Each structure stands twice: as C-alpha cells, then as structure tokens.
Amino acid sequence: MRTRxxxxxxxxxVGLGLMGMSWAYSASERDDARSVELIREAVDxxxxxxxxxxxxxxxxxxxxxxxxxxxxxxxxxxxxKTGLVMDDxxxxxxxxxxxxxxxxxxxxxxxxxxxxxxxDLYYLHRVDPDxxxxxxxxxxxxxxxxxxxxxxxxxxxxxxxxxxxxAAHPVAAIQSELSLWTRDAQGxxxxxxxxxxxxxxxxxxxxxxxxxxxxxxxxFVPFSPLGRGFLTGTVTAEGLEEGDLxxxxxxxxxEAVRRNQVLVDVVRRVAERRGTTPARVAIAWTLAQGDxxxxxxxxxxxxxxxxxxxxxxxxxTPEDLRxxxxxxxxxxxxx
Length: 335
Hints:
By secondary structure, the chain is of the alpha/beta class. It is built from ten helices and eleven strands. Strands 3-4-5-8-9-10-11 form a seven-stranded parallel beta sheet. Strands 1-2 form a two-stranded antiparallel ribbon.
C-alpha cells in the first residue's frame, strides 16, 4: 500500500478503526476470533495505522487489539483514547472525564489491555467541559515525558481548542468525522448537534480544523469516512439491527435516508465512471483533502477491509472532485 507520514513514521494511506468490532454497530456480526484475524490481515496488507479507545466496549476493543498485535506490535502505529467512560454498554451511555487522575489511570489500564509498554498516539476523546483543557492536556503531556506515550492528539475539537493545547504541547493529530456527508471539520456548518460525538463549542462550528492540521504539521484523521456505511449504498434504515447506534441517528431515519440518497447516487456514478467501488471513491475523497489526511474506515469483514484499502491507490481526477465537492449538505444532524 502507498504510504503517508505520521510524525516521521510511514503508515498506510488508509488506516483501520476498530470500534465496530466491539460495540455500536451490528452486534450479531461480532466475532472476537475473526476480528483478531482481520487486524493481522490488515497489517499484512499495509494497513498500519490502527485506532481504538478505552470506551469502545468498556475496554474490550483494546483487549482485541492487544491479542491481535502480539508479535507484530512494532509494525503499526497504535492509537487509543481517554476522556470518555462507559456507563451502560447496552444503551451506549457514557460520560466525559478529563481529570488528570483519570487520564493517568486510564492509560495504565489501556497499556495493560493492549499488552504494550507505550502507545504511539494518545487522544483526548472529548474535551470535558468541567475540566480546563490545559489541566487534562498537561497530564497527558506528563505521560509523554514518562515514555508511556509518543504523541498526543485531540478528537472533535475546535480550532481554538487545538491552538490552546498546541501552545502547551504539540498536537500530533486531530480525529474528527469527515466524509462526503459530514464536512464540519472543514469549516462547513450544520452537522453536529447533541450526543457524545458533538463538538463542544459556542455554536459557531469547529472551524477549518483540517486546514489547521496542515498548517501545524499534524495529521487529520477522519473517522466514518464512509458516512457510517451509508455512502457505500449498502446500509438502509430498515436493515439496522436493534441496538445499532445508527438507528437513533437523524440521518438514518426514513425521510432523511430517502433525501440523502442523492449523495449515494453521485458517489456510485463516479465509481462506475472510474471502474471502482463507491467505498473507494468516498475514502479517496478524504485522502484528496490533503497529504496529512489519514482516514480510518472500520469493518468486521475481510472483503470490506480490502475494498477500503484499495482507496489508497485511487487518485480522483479534477472532474471527479468537482462532482463530489458539489454534493448538497446531508439532511439531518450527525447525532
């Protein structure tokens, strides 16, 4: 696979988000043994930028990653996150905790589950509105000094929050949702609203965070580059299982799905013209937003893994990009 650079280390242009292997989507398809095999298959295919978090399955996802990476830990850039705590796995209820004590304790717990002495990238999953950002960030920076973490990142923040943190310790990466139906992180409006995934801000949106990363030598890491599967044309409201996070989201309600079908139609048209798949087109669009962008689509299936990875070799033409950039704003907020 073609590579991009993360803080001096080459990584596959397309990474892998592990969340869905443990929670949130399609519970009936979860299979720990198969997931372990899939992670190892991904690394062999050059997918070497791997993403997990403490809150995914209440630690289960980190345990999966730890099992999969035994003996091959040095072949990947491994990221995990702190700052969100599971309250109820069945309802996906959680709360934010950015206290320094939690940051320190949760990293030790993560390292134990991951079976490693250090992680390459440690994100603050969400800024805790009840804890000054610099208090949280300072505790995370201490972990870098101790050698337990190599680089620090932020998730779903505003430009001003990124600036505040970066002034105290370098921000190596920012992870936020970015896709053909969610462009908030480029300064677009109208995609957040409510839920654990929303950006805490003054209501004006996060600003151009993708651009901020390019200006400051940080990676921008899009999660859900496939619009939680919708942009592939394979996910429908009727097909979602009970308990699937998407069933509650505004964009997956019947009317929104109907109106958002135009996005799928355009992605499919571009894919047919290029002799490729909608998934590869959607991911390639995120890659086209800058050489510092490393998307992390998630999957539990080998076929989808290789389809997604193939986006690394797809360079969209100016005509493709004009057509995709012209897509309307998605109907419905993210959460």
